[in-house]
Specification:
Helix content is 89%, strand content 0%. The protein is built from four helices and no strands.
Length: 93
């Protein structure tokens, strides 16, 4: 494995643990795909630093178990925002 990939895998593991970041947030931060984040944590990091990989996977599991809640909150915000915009339009008319 190339050295920069190994370094990135360790950086990703540390970032996830320190910030409790989701896969999507991590991918955006590092400019890589979600698949690459998964590969780095589950395969590459596991062979480089099994303890760090285990800790990072634990954070990702918590995020995964909570994602339906975050999705529901995001949907709620979306419809509340739309409702407020509609009410403001009716008041102007």
């Amino acid at each position: 494995m190339k050295e920069y990939i190994e370094e990135r895998a360790v950086e990703i593991g540390n970032y996830i643990i320190e910030t409790k970041a989701t896969v999507r947030q991590t991918a955006k931060k590092f400019g890589i795909s979600k698949s690459t984040v998964h590969k780095d944590v589950t395969t590459r990091l596991a062979s480089l630093n099994p303890v760090l990989a285990s800790q990072a996977r634990a954070v990702l599991e918590v995020n995964k178990s909570e994602r339906h809640i975050r999705g529901g909150l995001a949907t709620r915000e979306k419809y509340l925002h739309q409702h407020m915009l509609e009410n403001n339009l009716h008041k102007k008319i």
